[in-house]
Amino acid sequence: MATIEDIAEFLDKAPGGGILLTTVDAVMNWSRGKSLWTFPMGTACCAMEFIAASFSRFDFDRHGTIPRPDPRHCDVMVVAGTITHKMAPAVKRIYEQMPEPKWVVAMGNCAVSGGIFYYDTYSVVRGVDEFLPVDVYIAGCPPRPEALQDAILQLRKKIASESISPRRRRPVASELPQPSDPRKGDLEEQPLARSKATAGGPDV
Amino acid sequence: MRIEELRERVCAMYPDLCPLFSIEFGDGSIAVPLERVHSAAADLKDMGFDRLGMVTAVDRGDEFEIVYRLQSRDLRAAMFLKAAVPKNDPVVPSMCDLWPAAEWQEREVFDLFGIVFDGHPDLRRILLPEDWSGHPLRKDYADDRIVRRPDYI
Amino acid sequence: MRTEELTLNLGPSHPSTHGVCRLVVRLDGEVVTHVEPVIGHLHRGIEKMAENRTYLQVVPLTDRLDYVGSMYANWAYCRAVERLAGIRVPERAEYLRVIVCELQRIASHMMGIGSSAADTGATSAFLYAFAQRDLVIDLFEALCGARLTYNYVRPGGVAFDLPEGWVEQCRSFVAQHPSAMLEIDELFFGNVIARARLKGIGVLDADTAVAWGVSGPSARGSGVDWDLRRDDPYSVYPRFDFDVVVGSNGDAYDRARVRLWECIESCRIIEQALDQLEPGPVMAEGLPRLLAPRPGDAYDHIESARGSLGVYLVSDGSVRPYRMKVRSPAFCNLAVLPLIATGHTLSDLLVILGSLDPVFGEVDR
Amino acid sequence: MSALLLGIAWGIAAVLAIAGGAVIGVWWERKVAGHIQLRYGPLQIGPAGSLQMLADVPKLLFKEDIVPSAADKPLFKWAPLMVFAPVAASLAVIPFAAGWAPLDTSVGVLFFLAVPSLEVVAILVAAWSQRNTLAAIGGLRAASQMIAYEVPRALSVLPLVLLAGSLRPTAVLGAWQWWWMPLLSIGFIVYLIASIAEMNRGPFDLPEAESELVAGYFADYSGMRWAIFMMAEYGAMIAASLFAAATFLGGGWPFGGALGTAAIVLKAALLITVIMWVRWTFPRVRQDQLLRFCWTVLVPAALVQLVVVGVVLPWM
Amino acid sequence: MDVKRARPAVPPSVSGDAEDRMGLVKGAASLAKGLGITLKAGVSRPLTVRYPQQKVAVSPRWRGPLALRGVLGRDDIPLLKSASHAYNELIDGLYRSDRLPPCVGNCPANVDARGQAFLIADNRVAEAYELVRDRNILPGVLGRICHHPCETACKRNFYDEPVAIRPLHRFAYEEYRKIRHERISPLPRTQGKSVCVVGSGPSGLAAAYDLLKLGYRVVMYERERKPGGALNTGVPAYRLPRDVLYEEIGDIVGLGLELNTGVEVGKDVPLVELIREHDAVLLAVGLQQSRILPIPGTDAEGVVGALEFLWSANFKHEAGVRGKRVLVIGGGNVAVDVARCALRVGASEVKLACLESESEMPCHPWEIAEALDEGVVALCSLGPEEVLVRHGQVAGMRMRSCLSVFDETGRFAPKFGDETTDVPADVIVFAIGQAPKIDALVAGTELLVSGRGQLVVDGTLFTTSVPGVFACGEIVTGPGSAIGSIATGHEAATSIHRYLQGLPLDGDRVARPVPVYPKHAPADITNVEANRRRAVMPMADPEERASDFRQVELGLTRQEAMAEAMRCLRCESEVCVGCTFCARTCPDYAIKVERVDEAGARCLTRYDYDLSKCCYCGLCAEQCPTKALQHTGQYELSFWHRDLMVFDKGEMLRPPTGTRATGRDGVSPPGCPVPRREEP
Q1: Structural domain that includes position D268
Q2: Burial (CB count within 10 angstroms: exposed 0-12, middle 13-18, buried 19+), residue C218
Q3: Contact D100/E at CB under 8 A
Q4: I want to staple B79 with a disulfide (CB 3.0 to 4.6 A). Which of B28, B66, C266, D41 is the partner?
Q5: Is the previous residue joined to E52 through a cis bond, with omega within 30 degrees of 0?
Q6: Which backbone phi and psi does B27 adopt, to 5 degrees?
Q7: CATH number corresponding to E290-434
Q8: Spatial separation of the C-alpha atoms in residues E606 and C227, rounded to whole Å
Q9: Burial E615-626 (b: 16+ CB within 10 A, else e)
Q10: For residue E462, what is the enclosing H or E element?
Q11: Residues of each domain in chain E carrying CATH 3.30.70.3270
Q12: How confident is the model at residue E675, as a pLDDT?
């Protein structure tokens, strides 16, 4: 079976393939964007909103997005919930089980940065982007189901700019800038209100 | 049953421990020496405390305090059973033979405090990964993965 | 013929483990000979964090314990703080707490029943139950501006008074809910396949339930007639007329169906509470910004959707708890899983797990 | 030679038909499930989301084709086609119009019952080749289930053959009388239930039970290979429904000609809808219950039907 | 689903039928029923809201991401400035929109203390003074003697300590007096009508000031030789130096007031004449008579009323108590004043006896504390029974122990015990209240006087039984505070204005709301940073001060006052002052606030809000004193990069319209991380 890489390579080399490649890209991106099957990597509260998003009131299926329990059939991993150090290897493994092309949505603040579990806890990973390349971050604790649907619509925009050609491809996980400092989301620690007040003036 | 009645019954059973029975915030609590905690628990179970609601520990600085919450459906009463556990050799008799409910809860206390339960059938970490080092609910637990909160109130 | 046991690893991300639970199962054919739940995949160290938060700042943390029933953890925690700090809660606040917690019970049981149905493959029943839950969530959103993590019950009362029109909205929900429940009852619990799947599965007898510390609907399904709302009455519960629903067989069917009837009982309580609701303050007066209870320890518990949810607080007189321990019913209930699931098939194992209705935020804390 | 050419032509036609049918079927299933669940289902592409599959198919086609390193690679790669082929073949004997079937053989009914059974082998191959515990369990379940339900399925078709006096589907259709419908109602229901079990659909979807085995015997398949499994499943559903429409339900009756063919398709679509409706209503049965149900209810019921027909037959 | 009321009885057993297995027929029926239910659902209307075309109406309480309404350095707060007769509407409007600062709301005269602090912190002290003077006509005076209900309600009580509003009044006055001559000039008389005010106490002055500003001619009569009413005669000089009082009244005279002192209306000038002469008359004569208990022995020598005592102490610095033992009866502020004055005029020993227990004493706690500092002895829970007389001269007082003062309903109904004590004393001063003395005043007019000698006055419109004659101050309200009297003066002035303009007196007139503020438990300030603490008012040494009439409170320095003004939280202004309490309350520590404090250039320099840590609990916005920090209703919050989720000040100030999805402006290039935008 011809893989997408073969086609891309052929188009890259073929005369006039550039135009064709653009067309193929457009078709592929449309198709991928409209058929984002999600793997619900739901661990905590956000998983409830993920369920709500797929159920009667919000109905993810309208967007062509259906949750599949098997990572092999999925395009997007929605990390919904807190990821602990104990859970992280499993998440990474499931991500690796997903076939390319694949995307990651970090749903909710726990998945984005640890959120409320950022400080003072010993077991929470401060954001899944420490070990997964995240495409869309959703803020919220938990985000509304609409926010998740909005993120999928935003992800479509991102997909629309991608290409099947390796030369035009988006950077894959290993090429993305790796988070050097796991605490990058943290505002640098400084005394609470650095006051340049006149001598003796109160802080507040 | 009111707490005062409960105190009388406990005092009748253990005259020597009666001064250690305190009533605070509407709850009765008896502190016993560590070596008597199992026999006291067995006696209290015979008295009617058929449920072990909670097993936990508190790091009191120089020693641990192991706290059992006993509940009774028939007596309609609840009380604490507490014992001080030395920090250098934290070994507590397991309550699994009295209440199987203790099994997981004692594993949790072992996991988070490092208190060893003597006679527990399967004492392993339960919440943290097997290869974790340290017991995080101890006050002196140090872990460079912890980001300290800014210190202001 | 020589057979060999098959070791199977389910989870930690499995569609039917209701969160992040890993089940290490040994199978003889399809029959489970041994199962060990491996929990802690969602252990976030909330108890440690609470030692570093002020008493008020802990409330949002408790929201995240049992994320299907945030109100309960809020309430149990606040009761412990109130006991420790000697705060008297205004009556209206107590009524509001009862109303929101009974609504929360409905929302949580909808999830429990629904996932029981989904475990057996009856997805549509799950969606119908979830549609009812959505209505409750709408009520909560109107009340406190959040869908899941309410931060509504606070030490000293509740955060907000009812918005305009809320009582009517709530009444219309309560009025239609029992009939919707009966429909789900007919669709799922009356179904011959569901009965065949759930009846006689995972039998837990009453004595074992008590000895293992099982509480809530899971214990009541076994005939343990114990409900803190009635037997250790707190708040204004003694003022309401309601029945404690008790099963008899202790199987998955009874556990799940007790939940369904509890929802109908909750509706009764809510209606009575709405009738008795009087205007008044919803927050105790004169609370300082930073609570600093006197040193000591206190425990208080409430009947959550999963059982008796207790919070044990130790204060050292400072503005932060010295130690917080959550006695989570889901944790204790889950401990009996190996006991009752052994000998059943793999399919039943997940049904039994579902009938215990664990929420791993609370199990792992 | 011409037979081979015809065969190839038919093969292509069947693949296209099944692919088309599956595309429509998946969409229709999502719509049926959606509306039963108080939601819409696909809505964005095409009218009422009917072209949703146009997006899904290219995506699946060009997904990464993962072959697990532990898998038995040749078997793993070919298993989907092995599942697909019998289903495609079974379509050939269905009488789409009065007196015409693509492959009008005298043992057509037998062919229809026997060929899809080969799927069992393919599913076992697929399940075993993955070296995945869940898939293995799914494969085992599928095997026992499919073999067991062969019996009532075959028994339920037998009365038809008896009544028609022929194993040739066109002949069965030709001999069909409207009163066969009430007469064969038990057999029809047994056939429907057995077919649902054969095609591993709810409430008999144990081999691929989402909530237990995640995806069952095709757990490790991704992209197009998995799509072929899905197509085979829908193909089996279409084939079973078409066969039932063409035999039990009297084919084009009450119309003839092209209208008759349309009627067959319509009846099959109706049956498919019923199968989906059932799927989204009921819980799943357990393995032992599934087999017990087969032997204690379905087989006796099919036998009763046979006896009834046997009693009626001499009076005809 | 249909809404029908179904109340099924709970079945005796939830387990259902006894047998576990259903029969074939029942089983099939149950399946059919199930199919029926799903069919019904299948043909009914889906519940789906078709996002994004349709959107669920989000609850108005939705706790979305935070946004700031305004910030220090960019936005000014609104000053409560208005013509006096429209001031009520202003306050009422603020109250209705829940934007009334507690200090303003709790002040009887609704003085804009927030505006004062804002202006002082901006180094616009004279403006601050004038802003305050519009409501509190004697800021310098009240800045010394006011019982400051504003500070009681101050939201800072909740966080640490209240802002020192009263000392700021005083500070503003001290600054203002340096430039007074530049800013005082007679106001134009535009109305052509004249009003006569009888009495130059705070209420009369307040009314006169308002009327002057409205353009009326105002003539004021005062019995004493110096103006000020009770401020002049009653308040001890160690609390209020008289030059301050005269100076401030002089300012009002400078604005055009015609003040006639030493003229007693009713004796020197008949009231009837004034009514005839002027378009309106305002009676603001106050309470001029001390009450003395009807117990045996009060006619003995050495029994004095508080007013008389204070008068002589203030003006003669001699009250005939030198070297004598003084017993003051009463537990109010006047009693404390008397006691402290008695010390200053040379009493050898001062005791203060009152019915109430120590915690119930009606005087302000700080007053009694200062008095105790100076050596006054308080005898609590004692009721006077009899004055002990020896040779026609007071020898002491027999006191009976008092068990409780108020009954369950809170009415004054003292219960006495059996014990009695004799307290020896040479002089007994009764400071148990005052009564009006208006017989001479109203003689010859048609003014109605009640049986108890009180003028009949409408309590809200301040009209009397004669049209055109109004009354205000303590003759209306009974004994009260200076600022309370001023408030009645403003009201009376409004009535007079409406009367003279021919407008209905009540009509569309708005009553000032009386908000009830939650009582705060005193905040724990043990761990509070030093720069959050309230400026401490320097006091004269107790030993030293008890001997003379020099001021006890020494006033804030300029630096202290500026710093204190900066402590103001500017409640309800919707302008963030960078108080950092949101950062302190946040359970996730997701907020960082920084501010520069330089007079005239105060600015919030940094407000970083980490959207990705926030748990949307709402604690910060709930306790934000200014209501500048508010939740928006947004919920579509998708971002390309984690760094975009830290909102800076500019982002926080963006109006919460549109979508915040994908970061700034929603148009970041996909695929690559976007660097954090620098602050402009």
Answers
A1: 68-315
A2: buried
A3: no
A4: B28
A5: yes
A6: -130, 140
A7: 3.50.50.60
A8: 52
A9: bbbbbbbbbbbb
A10: none
A11: 66-71+574-666
A12: 40
Sign, Cα dihedral of D111, D114, D117, D121: negative
* E464 close to E471: Cβ distance less than 8 angstroms: yes
Q: How far is E140 from chain A (nearest CA, A)?
A: 24
- Other CB atoms closer than 10 Å to residue A20's CB: what's the count? 14
Tokens representing E346? 């040379």
Number of helices (H), then strands (E), in chain D: 14, 0
Neighbors of chain B with 3 or more C-beta pairs under 8 Å? A, C, E
Kindly report the CATH class assigned to E84-285+515-565.
Answer: alpha beta
Question: Is the link from the previous residue into A179 a cis peptide, with omega within 30 of 0?
Answer: no
Task: Determine, for residues A118 and B150 on separate chains, whether the beta-carbon distance falls below 8 Å.
Answer: no
Q: Which CATH architecture best describes the domain E66-71+574-666?
A: 2-Layer Sandwich (3.30)
CA–CA gap between residue D194 and residue D152 (Å, rounded):
6
Give the closest residue to E220 by CA, choosing from E285, E142, E133, E286.
E285
Angle at CA C303, nearest 5°, toward C301 and C305? Answer: 130
Residue E524 burial (C-beta neighbours within 10 Å; 0-12, 13-18, 19+):
middle
**Nearest residue on chain E to D293, judged by CA atoms?**
E24
Find where tokens 């197009």 sit. Answer: D224
Residue in E49, E34, E32, E46 with CA at minimum distance from that of residue E1: E46
E64's tokens = 């979305």
Distant-in-sequence, close-in-space partners of E190: CB < 8 Å, separation ≥ 6: E215
* Sheet arrangement for strand E646-647: E591-596, E603-610, E646-647
pLDDT of residue D210: 64
Evaluate whether residue D84 is within a structural domain.
yes
Element (H, E) at D242: helix D223-246
What is the tally of structural domains in chain D?
1
Tell whether D172 is covered by a domain.
yes
- Cα dihedral angle (E231, E233, E236, E242), rounded to 10 degrees? 70
List of chains touching E (3+ CB pairs within 8 A): A, B, C, D
∠ CA E244-E245-E247, rounded to 5°: 65
Look at strands E434-435 and C22-28 and give their pairing. Answer: unpaired
CA nearest neighbour of E293 among E377, E358, E233, E383: E383
pLDDT at A204: 34
User: pLDDT confidence of A73, banded at 50, 70, 90?
Assistant: confident
Question: In this structure, which amino acid lies at residue E304?
Answer: V
Verify whether the Cβ–Cβ distance B146 to A122 is below 8 Å: yes
Look at domain A36-159 and name its CATH class. alpha beta
Residue C22 carries which side chain, given as an amino acid letter? Answer: R
Q: Where are the domains of chain A?
A: 36-159
φ/ψ of residue E152, rounded to 5: -65, -35
Q: At A146, phi and psi to the nearest 5?
A: -65, -35
pLDDT digits over E523-568, tens only?
A: 777 777 777 788 777 777 777 777 777 777 777 788 888 888 888 8
Of C15, C127, C196, the CB nearest to D210: C15
Which CATH code is given to the segment(s) B3-118? 3.30.460.80
Regarding chains B and D, contact by 3 or more CB pairs under 8 A is answered as: no
Cis bond before residue D102 (omega within 30° of 0): no
Nearest to A99 among D37, D52, D63 (CB): D63
Q: Where are the domains of chain B?
A: 3-118
pTM listed for this prediction: 0.85
What is the rounded CA–CA span in Å between residue E77 and residue D19? 70
pLDDT reading at E664 higher than 80: no
pLDDT digits (tens, 9 = 90+) for B105-152: 898 999 888 899 888 888 888 888 888 888 888 888 888 888 888 777
Task: Give C-chain residues touching D206 at CB under 8 angstroms.
Answer: 347
